[in-house]
Design brief:
By secondary structure, this protein is α+β, with helices and mostly antiparallel strands. The protein is built from 11 helices and 14 strands. Strand 5 (about 110) and strand 6 (about 115-120) form a beta hairpin.
Length: about 325
């Protein structure tokens, strides 16, 4: 028993010295100090987030419609009648749960990006499940958002399997602190969810170039499905990605957040959503700890800069 305790304490000390931010430390020493509870709805409700983002000039996928009540579900085809493709998602979902992508459809059949065929009743049931709170935070009643489908840049086409890759930027007190791109695989079912087998690629915060890649927390070099070199990734329009992340601080007032950004082939970088409790797997993808990055910002980064000045500082920092 004593040996096990000593080993645990030794490992905890090594992680602390390496600047690793653990769950408890994140919750009590970062989130509780930086994020006021009353601000959470600004990011937990995707409709509110989209409205706020558009007000300050952050591009987001276009909103087609919102379904709030069960009696509206049967008429969802009328909502999308002018669109050949669309995405259905819960307003209060997290981790990509409850997201349904429709590439094409008729009145009776709907096709997903993987080629799977769904009936009208299956899509109807999915929207009903969203309203019932099946995918929402805390299981509370929800609303279904229907929005335009993002057409991701073909720059990433060879690095991701079927699904849309995104960039997650961790922002601390308005400064982009750490970033990664999440790439879908056959194992993850075309979703950019690391827990389901997607790949996380750490990105240099100054350049957007890949640093290292992991799948299931294990370092990898080659995408298992596309066979491309993951360390050759260079995210274009990197400054624009960082600008969206930095603006999110002014938009929400949250001192610690995660900004999820996609690169649309026509509209450039677009904000998908924000997260007031971003996960910690980004540290594994980058091979370094968030605690160290946060401490560096606290000690060495100037206060009271505009979002543009903060991005300038990050891009020039050494």
């Amino acid at each position: 028993m004593w040996s096990a305790i000593k080993d645990y304490c030794s490992r905890a000390k090594r992680l602390h010295e390496a600047g690793i931010l653990g769950m408890n430390r994140r919750n009590y020493a970062v989130i509780s100090w930086c994020n006021r509870r009353r601000l959470y709805p600004l990011v937990d409700d995707k409709v509110q987030t989209k409205i706020l983002a558009n007000k300050i000039g952050i591009t987001t996928p276009g909103l087609i419609g919102v379904i709030e009540h069960q009696y509206e579900v049967k008429n969802f085809l009328q909502v999308v009648q002018n669109y050949s493709e669309f995405v259905i998602k819960p307003a209060h979902g997290s981790g990509g749960k409850g997201v349904m992508i429709i590439r094409s459809y008729t009145e009776n059949e709907f096709t997903t990006p993987s080629g799977r065929k769904l009936t009208f009743n299956e899509v109807y049931q999915h929207i009903s499940n969203i309203l019932s709170g099946l995918y929402s935070l805390g299981g509370k009643y929800d609303v279904a958002i229907i929005e335009e489908l993002v057409h991701f840049s073909n720059i990433f086409e060879k690095y991701s399997y079927q699904g849309i890759p995104d960039v997650r930027v961790i922002v601390y007190k308005g400064y982009p602190a750490m970033a990664m791109t999440r790439l879908s695989t056959a194992e993850s079912g075309g979703r950019a969810n690391l827990h389901q087998g997607a790949i996380g690629v750490g990105l240099d915060i100054q350049t957007g170039n890949s640093l290292r890649a992991v799948q299931h927390n294990i370092p990898v070099r080659i995408h298992p499905d596309t066979k491309e070199d993951l360390l050759s990734i260079k995210v274009p329009l990197w400054r624009e990605h960082l600008e969206i992340a930095a603006k999110a601080y002014e938009m929400t007032g949250l001192g610690y957040l995660g900004a999820d950004i996609v690169l649309d082939r026509d509209k450039g970088p677009m904000m998908l959503e924000l997260n007031a409790r971003p996960g910690l797997a980004i540290q594994i993808a980058n091979g370094r700890g968030l605690a160290g990055a946060i401490e560096n910002i606290e000690k060495n980064y100037p206060k009271n800069l505009s979002w543009k000045e903060r991005v300038d500082f990050v891009l020039k920092a050494h």
